[in-house]
Specification:
2 helices; about 15% helix; single chain
Length: about 100
Amino acid sequence: MLVLAAELAPASLARFGLEGREIGRCRGAQLEGLKLRHPWLAKQVPLILGEHVTLEAGTGRAHRPRAWPGDFAIGRTYELPVVNRWGPDGCFAPGTELVPG
């Protein structure tokens, strides 16, 4: 199951070559704190809210709450751990999941 902003779902599904059907609707705030399966790592992640996530593009949700400045700030609000995936040379750090080392 994917959770997408209703307004962005058709474009998001088309971009990834997926088909789907709507099984329910709610406001994003109603999902706050819900634990979701990470799309490619074997772990669960909380659904968090942020003013920086808009309907301008994408899926209407943030994927990596520590990767970009807006995501970083909201990650602090939710007390999420900081995981530094970049080395001083700007490349992925050794041991970064799903990145050849």
